[in-house]
Write a structure and sequence with these properties.
Blueprint lengths: L8 E4 L5 H12 L3 E6 L2 H9 L4 E5 L7 H13 L4 E4 L14 H11 L1 H17 L2 E6 L12 H21 L4 E8 L5 H14 L3 H10 L9 H11 L11 E4 L8
Parallel strand pairs: 1-2, 1-4, 2-3, 4-5, 5-6, 6-7
Helix pairs in contact: 1-9, 3-5, 4-6, 7-8
Length: about 260
């Protein structure tokens, strides 16, 4: 299937590992020109070197000026940005009774504000050209809050509210805005959370992982590549009538419609 994005320029945030990297690779496989970015500049450049048309940019998007520098680097290399994939590392685990004002502010600073800044920079050009894709890689916590992930649940739900509002405002301009919600995907973040929860329950990481997989209808964790394929589809020319929605890539683990 041709996704119709060959020659499009895509900026993929936090794409030096995990779901961001998988999404960037999937977009590159469809012929998109990709901007890999993250705090590990050497890794970003190494990944970019493996792709047909890509650059790697070292950036910490929590710095107020970083979004402007990232957009400038993308436009210098490839011209206007057509696809923006929003992504960020998850905040530390913990319950809702343990968090402070500072913790909540930090969650907003990492999960909401950099994304809003990037959108504000790239959206005008997308609207003027009549084509654009904004996709946020988030968490099933947006629709089913995850125990022990209070800060992630708060920050990502706030992002969801912002993007849903935005989607209705720009739909007529050919710009779609969606969220893709991973369930249990085999990434370093999943291993981190399994380690945290196993310690709390007093079991081995292996035992906790086995329990975790047992409740997934598919019977296993998803792969980053499976997730990346879905993300690329939502960024494609084929999904022009899909906007303002959240799609789960979770193996059926969320027990709601």
């Amino acid at each position: 299937m041709d996704l119709g994005i060959r020659g499009r320029t895509a900026v993929v945030c936090a794409s030096t590992a995990g779901l961001g990297e998988a999404t960037a690779r999937a977009l590159a496989a469809e012929g998109a020109r990709v901007v890999i970015c993250g705090r590990r500049g050497d890794v970003a450049k190494a990944i970019a070197a493996e792709l047909p048309e890509a650059i790697g940019v070292e950036t910490d998007l929590t710095a107020p000026e970083a979004p402007t520098r990232l957009v400038a680097a993308a436009e210098d290399a490839f011209g206007p940005v057509d696809i923006l994939v929003l992504n960020s590392p998850g905040p530390p685990p913990g319950g809702s009774q343990d968090i402070t004002d500072t913790d909540i502010a930090g969650a907003m600073e990492s999960l909401l504000l950099p994304h809003q800044r990037l959108v504000s920079l790239m959206l005008p050009g997308m609207r003027e050209r009549g084509w654009g894709r904004v996709l946020a890689l988030a968490s099933i916590g947006v629709v089913a809050p995850v125990p022990s992930l209070a800060l992630s649940n708060i920050g990502r739900a706030a992002l969801g509210g912002y993007l849903k509002t935005l989607a209705t405002e720009v739909a007529a301009d050919g710009v779609t805005v969606n969220m893709l919600l991973p369930g249990r995907i085999a990434t370093a973040r999943t291993l981190q959370m399994n380690t945290y929860r196993a310690a709390r329950e007093g079991v081995s990481v292996e035992e906790f992982a086995a329990r975790s997989q047992a409740v997934i209808p598919v019977g296993r964790y998803g792969t980053p590549e499976e997730f990346g394929s879905v993300a690329a589809f939502l960024c494609s020319d084929l999904t022009s009538y899909v906007t303002g929605t959240t799609l789960r890539c979770d193996g059926g683990v969320v027990p709601t419609l």
